[in-house]
Amino acid sequence: MRAVTTERVSDVACDNPKCPQRGVKGAGNVTLRRRYGAEGIRFLRCLACKQQFSERRNTPLFNFKLSKPKVIDVVKHLAEGVPGRRTARLTGVGRETVNRIVLAVGKHAKEVHDQLVQDLDVREVQMDEMWAFVGKKRQASERRRETSRRAWERVGSHRRGR
């Protein structure tokens, strides 16, 4: 059995909504319980509310067994426009793992955006639209009897700044 430590952690805050010390870093209320995984991920405990949690909780890395540099590598490939299959091949991870990373990072980005972008005072909005041809090559389309379609995207931006 592993030894349980009580080392104080100052760079992480408890995120339990019912905790009186929620969101407060460096208050001495979060302790290191143990480390797990090949990377030594910290498993923490809040002394104020007794909640135990992984340091990866509420991050896109939560529930991934991949190392942090590997997940970052996958995200960098995708951000550069590399398709999912090619990203999987270049980074050495499975296609489904790439898909899970995309969903996790996208969900996290939306949550961060929704928290940070609030109560904007926008008087003018400039709208624009673009469309792209979405379809399959003729041979694949004939086999599945699918037709090609247009995909429309509408974008709104503040007129005086982007």
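Above is the first protein from milestone M3; the second protein from the same milestone is given next.
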Amino acid sequence: MNPAARVALAHGDAVQLRDLLHALPNPDVRHDYLVRLIGNVGHAGGGNAHLTLHYVPDRTIADAAGFGAYLEMLGGAAHETLEALAADVLEDVNDALVPRWVRVTVTSDSAAAGSKHAVLVEDSQPGWENDTLISVLAPL
């Protein structure tokens, strides 16, 4: 978690936040498949950011209800930028779920008329590749 967010959340709260990404056993570890979770989170820039999490599970999947609670509590952290918010979510998901592949997309309408800000970060396990599966996702 970035330093500004660490200041806003006490250490125990940061652990509790990550714990909300409760991992459940993957019902089918033999196949690659995409999971999409969507929600809104408050951010320091004002208003809400729209967050989309895509991931390919390995041994665990996220509990959807826990993801919603995670986003709600995450809104209390001080993320100065959408980039910092996206990086923190990526780190938390990687730590809690250890997915084969993960993408976090965060978008927000700016106070400036007609302005939109979007951030996309992704990561994968070394050696994992399935371009056919990932190609079904729309570009940023």
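Note on the second protein: Helices lie at 3-8, 11-19, 64-74, 82-97, 131-134.
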